[in-house]
Automatic annotation (TrEMBL):
Natural source organism: Labrus bergylta (ballan wrasse)
InterPro entries: GKRP_SIS_2, Glucokinase_regulatory_CS, MURQ/GCKR, SIS_dom, SIS_dom_sf
Pfam families hit by this protein: GKRP-like_C, GKRP_SIS_2, GKRP_SIS_N
GO MF annotations, alphabetized: carbohydrate binding; enzyme binding; enzyme inhibitor activity; fructose-6-phosphate binding
Protein name: Glucokinase regulator
PROSITE patterns in alphabetical order: GCKR (PS01272), SIS (PS51464)
Domain SIS span(s) in chain numbering: 292-469
UniProtKB keywords: Carbohydrate metabolism
Length: 579
């Protein structure tokens, strides 16, 4: 049972790999057998389940069904892409030597622009033309571009448009696709204004990969702990893959260390050890999760106050709670010392966009601190190399308003941070993660970042589970703000109600437009119009499900959810009436 000491069997760990397991769904959308009862699990068991799911990232081939992270083909592709980066680096480095200054050769593109780093911007993912135009603008005047497009489910139209553009201009662009589904599971739905689908783009890339004019890195890492929540394993695996490629390329360029098969595997092992080191603190992570969950259940907030790159992980984790759990923006917020200067984002400071984009510690002191109380949770995120005096100072300020302060910090074995004792005294708990001074392979900072990501994913996911935002292991209160989420919502309604797709989509639209009878205008509109309307709606999926299960009107369903605001329990009440 999920409430007792939880363990998993070998069979459960590997059940998703068989072809007859949820065969209609791609790997990234399947439910994970390990977490079927995560909505009923204790905080400690939630962490254990998440650990088991993350362990699947590094599982070796056990069946012929899927290639894995350490599969020969995946490792060899990582090596080839690293060598391409090395070539570009060496060219840029030689030029920089001549100019006596080295210019950056890296740039990033994110659907929705930099505001997507801090808030939900799901709709731009559906625009392939915008993806193409953004890439074209960023790369204007470049003679050689290695483009790495990331779409965990091999589904985002924004990325498909970019990959298609790369293949139309092979004299400049070499496209690389990173994702976590087999190629035959790439999305095959039509995209607005396009004659191609994501799957057809992938098929063209497969053909080009034979001559190394395109590359695909798409290991299967298993279904997400919360079905479809690619911020978790998808995000972690993306970080690992990019760092494997870029670290190998940098080592080859600047230390003359050749890119080797063995070297890539050793670096992978360092990430696997990071997972083990992090989850060795299960009890401590569970305590943080419990505190955060209690805050959310009370209608209060969770604040991440961070320093350096681990603070950026806090900002990103907080930004993902709205589309994943239907959370209010204020429920989980991140703040970073140095603000946008430390983030070094493309567009610079975004503070003028409103309070949601004010992310400095000064902003926390001005906007949040005055209203804090003991029901709020404050989490300090830092490393021993940060300004510990500054950490202690901010902890003192927060302690004036709340005793519910916790610290998570990374330190190298043998290094003692001054004033850490002061911070420990101010905090309800301090989770110290200690690392060997020189890891066998890879950057220590990269390991700290991955560890922080795993921990924060566990805290925010677990807190929302405790709040009742998950049913079994499904995102029952998912926001329906792009085509991927719209289809996921329809599938979820089918799964829970047992009704056919057409009836479930009809209920979804009634909930979305808050009507009991669909008009011709609604039924003739496309998904883009529906998702645009959904931006201003809450609890769309729970409302639709209550209507399906009870036959009630939308207004009656709203009344039902008002009486039982914990979404999971409202759903269970409806389901129990059908038995």
């Amino acid at each position: 049972m999920a409430g007792t000491d939880w363990t998993c069997s070998h069979a459960t760990m590997h059940a998703w790999e068989f072809l007859d397991y949820e065969p209609s769904l791609p790997v990234s959308e399947k439910s994970n057998p390990l977490t079927r009862d995560i909505d009923r699990a204790s905080a400690n068991n939630i962490v254990r389940m998440l650990q088991a799911c993350d362990t699947q990232i590094f599982q070796e081939d056990s069946e012929d069904t899927y290639q894995r992270l350490s599969s020969e083909r995946v490792v060899e592709t990582i090596m080839e892409v690293a060598k391409r980066v090395e070539l570009i680096l060496k060219t840029g480095f030689n030029k920089a030597l001549r100019e006596l200054n080295q210019t950056s050769i890296y740039s990033y593109i994110i659907a929705g622009g930099d505001r997507a780093l801090l808030s939900s911007q799901e709709a731009p993912e559906d625009d392939p033309k915008q993806g193409m135009l953004t890439l074209k603008k960023v790369c204007e005047g470049k003679k050689r571009v290695l483009f790495i497009g990331i779409s965990c489910g091999l589904s985002a139209p924004f990325v498909a448009g970019q990959l298609d553009f790369c293949m139309q201009h092979p004299e400049v662009y070499t496209p690389v696709l990173v994702g976590f589904n087999p190629t035959h599971q790439a999305r095959d739905d039509p995209m607005p204004g396009c004659t191609f689908t994501f799957r057809s783009v992938v098929q063209r890339m497969q053909e080009l990969s034979k001559s190394q004019k395109a590359f695909l890195i798409n290991p299967a890492v298993g279904p997400e702990a919360i079905s479809g929540s690619s911020r978790m394993k998808g995000g972690s695996s993306t970080k690992i893959l990019l760092e494997l490629v870029l670290s190998a390329a940098h080592a080859a360029t600047f230390t003359n260390m050749p890119v080797t098969y063995k070297g890539i595997l050793q670096h992978m092992e360092a990430y696997k050890q990071t997972l083990d080191i992090t989850y060795a603190q299960t009890a401590e992570i569970a305590a943080l999760l419990e505190a955060a969950g209690q805050s959310l259940r009370c209608g209060r907030r969770v604040c991440y106050l961070g320093w350096g790159s681990v603070a950026i992980l806090g900002l990103i984790d907080a930004s993902e709670c709205n589309p994943t759990f239907g959370a209010d923006f204020e429920d989980v917020r991140g703040f970073i010392s140095g603000g946008y200067r430390e983030m070094n984002n493309n567009e610079g400071p975004l503070s003028s966009l409103g309070s949601d984009f004010r992310v400095t510690h000064k902003d926390f002191l001005h906007l949040v601190l005055p209203s804090l109380n003991d029901q709020d949770t404050v989490l300090l995120l830092y490393t021993h190399s940060d300004n510990i005096r500054e950490v202690a100072k901010l902890a003192h300020r927060a302690r004036e308003k709340t005793s519910n302060i916790h610290a998570v910090y990374h330190q190298v074995d043998g290094a003692a941070a001054e004033q850490q004792d002061d911070i420990d005294r101010l905090c309800s708990s301090s989770l110290k993660i200690t690392w060997a001074s020189s890891p066998a392979s890879g950057s220590l900072l990269h390991m700290w970042e991955l560890s922080t990501k795993l921990l924060l994913n566990a805290v925010s996911t677990g807190a929302h589970i405790l709040k009742g935002k998950i049913y079994q292991n499904d995102m029952i209160d998912v926001q329906v703000t792009n085509s991927k989420l719209y289809r996921r919502a329809t599938r979820l309604l089918q799964k829970l109600s047992g009704y056919p797709e057409s009836k479930c989509e009809e209920a979804l639209l009634k909930s979305l437009y808050q009507v009991d009878t669909l008009t011709i205008d609604i039924t003739s509109s496309d998904i883009t119009a529906h998702t645009r309307t959904a931006r201003n709606r809450t609890k769309v999926v729970p409302l639709a499900l209550v209507c399906l299960l009870t036959g009630c009107t939308v207004m009656e369903a709203e009344s039902h959810l008002e009486q039982q605001p914990i979404v999971r329990e409202a759903v269970e009440t409806c389901l129990s009436k059908l038995v």
